[in-house]
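Section 3.1 - Work completed
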Amino acid sequence: MRITLAALLLGLVVSPVGATELGDPDYGVCRGTDSRCYHDWGNFDPADGYRLLVYSRTAGPRHAHLGTPLGPGLNPPLNDDNVAVKAVVGLGRDNGFAVDYTEDVAQLGSAGRLLRYNAVMFLSTTRDTLDDPAQTALRQYVRAGGGFVGVHNAFGTEYNWPWYEGLLGNANFYDHSAHQPGVVETVGRRDVSVQELPHRWNFSDEWYNLVPYPTRVRVLAKVDESTLARGVRGSLGHPGHGREHPVSWCQYYDGGRAWLTTLGHDVKAWTDEPLEGDQYFTQHLVGGIKSAMGMAPFCR
């Protein structure tokens, strides 16, 4: 079934047949791991190629891997310290998808503009980075079958918007452990973002504790808390999540696809500077981007 953007904006979109029982009472949308929660309205034609929009605006603390704030507009000049955005642009070049980037909220202000992209990535955004038009456009875009990729501090964004919390899988950043090495465990072998990874791999991060904790999602990777030499207790006292401490997961949400990871804090993860396990992080991220865009099977 194909739907026009005009019908979408007029609110004429309905849920797929049979998906009503999959509705979430907390967020009022169809969400989870059942593909009936995906709305395939035919808005994305593979013949047009694949394109990702990276959004990294911050309205609070700014992670070092983002570097200096970007100028206005789409694809402003990058500085040497904008290492994470540069890395994603390079990943697109090496893996067959185009990448645009911005920190200008006006670039997210219409669903029509967002529908140029197969997925939108929130890359370590912080606090309230969207105005009302951008919030509306993002929701319309996801409902039209768009993909969403949330990386690291995307979980510290839009705290007061319940729909966005649901997009993250019913999860939000609470606090984190010390930045330290740990062991990531992949969960399952089917999903494209984990199928080529070792079962256990070393990585360094500030390991996020989550309140609320993700539900109705497919967990793809978790951290083995017993490998964290400095412990998992966060700065606000969160004790960690024990044996089930997720770091990456996926879900269908309100018609779209969402692939999510709390990983990516270390600047070295985005550069050529050596960091143990960074090749697996990169591989994991590329698989997640491709699946959210529809280049590969999603959330298997």
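Second construct:
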Amino acid sequence: MPMLIAFVILVSLVLIAVIFVSVYPVLGGSPFRASRLPLLRSPNYRDGKFINQVPTSLSMSFGQTLKLMYEFAKGEPNRKPKQPLPVVPLSVDKLLAKNEEGKAQASVTWFGHSAVLLRIDGLTLFLDPMLGRAPSPFPIFGNARYSRKLPIEIEELPEIDAVIFSHDHYDHLDYGTIRKLRHKVKRFLVPLGVAAHLERWGVDPSCISEHDWWEEIEYAGLKLATAPARHFSGRNVVGRNGTLWCSWIIEGKNEKVFYSGDSGYGPHFKEIGERYGPFDLALIECGQYDERWSAIHMMPEETVQANVDVRGRAMVPIHWGGFTLAMHDWFDPPKRAIKAARERGVTIAVPRIGETVAFPAAEYPADEWWK
């Protein structure tokens, strides 16, 4: 009888978990329920999952895992700001401003972490617009956004010509943001498999296009291309690497931008530079790193090297200033990146959250505002 009761309890828990996964929309959709043909045709898809260009281990020993849990639980005084970070208010007029010649000025506005609003050729693109409270399937329990507010509320944003995603992790793809933003967006450009999430959240499938590495796209006069990154994907306890992760090349008539998404350092950066460089501006991951997972998140010095590899004329470190997802001081990413950039003679911009930065420019903001 005790064995039967234990079995019934176990089966019940499994059924509850399965039902929960199927009905809780925040977890996203399953790419395996949608058309799998594009996934199966991808040279980067093997044995039911996507793979990196080079071997990339995500495993840690039992001892390392215990130590990591202790470090997270212990906390450190500089792991997050002592006060909510201030933001520079953004207005639609400021965002759509033209230069002295009456032409639309290419610009980027950083929203913290990896969310960047890009203006190029008079078009408005939003890169990885995670604008939610916390990067978690249960935001009420997640660590809160440092700034506590956005430079501009989603409802006040102008029409978005395209939203571009690099992968489906919670700190990049947010259910609440998509639900609020979807009616303002003309087009969603995503890596393979990610459309399933957007479709479950009410985005019209005809507005979504999925792309594999090295695929080139023309949209609204822009030339875009997906490129490799060294990372992984997944929003659930099952199905890791069931969707693709990528970086992006965005080329207008006069300016060219590289967006790294999340990535460990690897040979793909040099390959991207050789194929598509140089870039007027490179937005490159720099934050949430640790030696234990350096294969999937670069150290700041590697971020600067990646900019050199892709041939960026100027770089903006992203993937910091939003949330605490690692053990380093929250201001460590820009501090180390600036030091490495100066040593390498690399032009670096470190704008405030909400600050609009025009490019190309003779000077970029790089004062240490976090102090």
